[in-house]
Amino acid sequence: MADLDLLNRDPNNLNDHVRVAFEDVLAEPDGAHSIDCVWKCSYSCFNCAKNCCYNVLTILCGLPLALCWGCEFACITFSHVWQITPCLRAFMINCGCAQKFFGTCLQCCLGPICESFGLCFSNIVVKNA
């Protein structure tokens, strides 16, 4: 709680795509301007509605959703620590063993054949006339 930054609540810019201001949504081009008081009142209404609605939704849904997401990421962490990572490690160990076995078989069986063909074809000389 001590390291919680109440001013910068998105330090990693995770939600830049939902940063919405009045100017990002409503804009009047030249030649189509409403009365100044309408534009100012629209600005106030937009911001008030956006902030009030967001605050009501966070009050009603923020804590339950935070609890759900906390449980979700706890389950993900648990499954990675206790299931996925050990399984991957066992798989990598077995693949390393299979790689050595397969490599040895190739060296024993195909190595001499390829070496023989290489010696046979090394005596071929091509001359351009």
Automatic annotation (TrEMBL):
Alphabetic keyword roster: Cell membrane, Golgi apparatus, Membrane
UniProt main location, coarse: membrane
Domain of life: Eukaryota
A GO term for molecular function: molecular adaptor activity
Cell compartments where the protein resides: Cell membrane; Golgi apparatus membrane; Membrane, Caveola
Membrane topology value: Peripheral membrane protein
GO biological process: caveola assembly
One Pfam family from the record: Caveolin
GO cellular component: caveola; Golgi membrane
Residues in the signal sequence: none
Family the UniProt entry places it in: Belongs to the caveolin family.
Stated role: May act as a scaffolding protein within caveolar membranes. Interacts directly with G-protein alpha subunits and can functionally regulate their activity.
Family annotation (PANTHER family): CAVEOLIN (PTHR10844), CAVEOLIN-2 (PTHR10844:SF19)
Protein name, UniProt field: Caveolin
UniProt source species: Littorina saxatilis
